[in-house]
Write a structure and sequence with these properties.
The protein is of the alpha/beta class. It is built from 17 helices and 15 strands. It has a seven-stranded parallel β-sheet. A six-stranded parallel β-sheet has the order 10-9-8-13-14-15. Strands 11-12 form a two-stranded antiparallel ribbon. α12 links the parallel β9 and β10. The longest helix has 20 residues.
């Protein structure tokens, strides 16, 4: 029993699902820890969940920090491209903005800084500059004062990629408070999304540990702790399971049908995603004529607010059931749409009560593999593709897809004419990626996906001791 005061820091809402809605808090308290949530978001943890929280009301980072963060990202990607002799890193960059005098001026400034600092030493100079800027802010002083009042034994930051976290973690380090962060997503390390520098880092797997050492020479091996991710733990929580009858009744599904889940993507990843949904609807119609009784569960990307799917859904109301993620919008920006605890149960049951999932390159392959369900990845161009629209084939060239143990770790549909036959083969038990997909899941998410929260608390315990 540690009996320590642990400050769980939410710089933004992405960590809510992993660290507020799972059993993470319960496990920590069972070990005797006092857990306080340090909340930089508009999500009301006290009101919604009854959690002990301290709100961060001062939100402003230094006005130059976003520009230097972009400079840092570009330089790190340049260094990786040269170091590994690999052009894929250039595809992680967003285009420069030359619209208007002000944007052009800032772009020129950014490009000069990139040119002057494109080396590993240059990365360190820019990181040092970001820290100098953030230490000069009122937010730094505000967070430092809060920490002096709370006196935590450790600050645990729930994501490594938020600029809102930099000043708060610097304040903790300057006060001698141990800091620990969690690398949020399976693709974040190669994409140069490591914004914060802490004493220790929780990573998903041995693969992610290896990546951290490759991309960040200033991080030492003893700072990296392999824990897994709480992201997949709800899939093993039997208390979340609804019967088929109850789930189908709640969402007005047809008990006589078998359902295929279409997991939607954000507009950046898959700008023509609606046409893949249309292809799936056409494939389902074809199979239904052949005697199959199929429907589609359409689960949109939680932060997608576009209307691009509406026409396809309206034209296929007889086979497409829309089950939206149970997320809450607490503002107009994409990062003000927050997950809810109820959505963990919803996703669990969508996986259980679907025959398979189809999507463009989503990590839902692992959600479904956890339930022994196959995944078909769309990997063909749409005829609507034209200049200025991003080709989804680029996604599968990214570094994180190189972790696949074999091409059979997912079922790739490379031609829409194949789709109906591939679905038929899956339903008939003749085609599956589950066996290889589980190997991939273990490589990416670690060997013990049910124990991630416990392992993170093991890390916390060892640090505070």
């Amino acid at each position: 029993m540690t009996n320590k005061k642990i400050l769980v820091f939410f710089p933004d809402g992405v960590g809510l699902r992993n660290f507020a809605f799972t059993k993470f808090k319960e496990i920590g308290e069972q070990r005797g820890n006092q857990i306080i949530y340090w909340n930089n978001t508009v999500f009301p943890l006290k009101e919604e969940l009854g959690y002990d929280e301290v709100k961060i009301e001062t939100q402003k980072i230094h006005p130059l920090t976003p520009f230097y963060c972009r400079i840092r990202k570009h330089i790190e990607l340049n260094v990786s491209q040269k170091k590994f002799n690999d052009k894929v890193y250039a595809t992680y960059k967003f285009p420069f903005n030359y619209n208007g005098f002000k944007n052009t001026l800032m772009t020129v400034f950014i490009r000069i800084q990139i040119g002057l600092n494109s080396s590993e030493k240059g990365v360190l100079r820019i990181r040092k500059r970001i820290n100098q800027l953030e230490r000069s802010t009122t937010k730094y002083e505000y967070c430092k004062k809060q920490l002096q009042e709370i006196k935590p034994d450790l600050v645990f930051c729930t994501t490594q990629r938020a600029s809102q976290s930099i000043s708060a973690l610097l304040a903790a380090k300057d006060l001698g408070i141990p800091t620990l962060t969690f690398v949020y997503s399976w693709d974040n390390v190669p994409k140069a999304m490591q914004l914060v520098e802490t004493d220790y880092y929780c990573v998903w797997s041995d693969l992610m540990k290896k990546e951290m050492l490759q991309y960040y020479p200033f991080i030492k091996e003893n700072q990296l702790i392999v824990t897994g991710t709480p992201q997949f733990e709800p899939h093993y929580d039997e208390s979340l399971l609804q019967t088929r009858e109850d789930f189908f009744a709640q969402y007005n599904l047809d008990l006589n049908k078998k359902y295929i889940c279409f997991s939607g993507d954000d507009e950046t990843t898959s700008p023509l995603d609606q046409y893949y949904l249309e292809d799936l609807a056409n494939a389902v119609r074809k199979l239904n004529v052949d005697g199959y009784n199929l429907g589609i569960i359409y689960r949109k990307c939680p932060v997608d607010t576009t209307s691009r799917y509406n026409k396809v859904i309206e034209a296929n109301q007889d086979i497409i059931a829309v089950i939206d993620p149970l997320w809450q919008a607490m503002g107009k920006q994409w990062n003000e749409v927050f997950p809810t605890k109820a959505d963990l149960q919803l996703l669990h049951n969508v996986c259980v009560h679907s025959e398979l999932v189809t999507n463009v390159c989503s990590s839902t392959v692992f959600d479904f593999v956890a339930h022994n369900k196959p995944c078909i990845y769309y990997n063909y161009e749409q005829p609507q593709l034209k200049k200025g629209i991003r080709d989804i084939g680029q996604n599968y060239k990214y570094v994180h897809f190189r972790s696949m143990p074999s091409p059979e770790a997912a079922i790739f549909c490379t031609d829409k004419k194949q789709l109906a036959n591939q679905i038929k083969a899956v339903l008939d038990g003749k085609l599956s990626n589950v066996s290889e997909g589980k190997k991939w899941y273990k490589i990416v998410a670690g060997k013990t996906p049910t124990k991630a929260s416990e392992k993170i608390w093991d890390a916390v315990d060892s640090i505070v001791k």
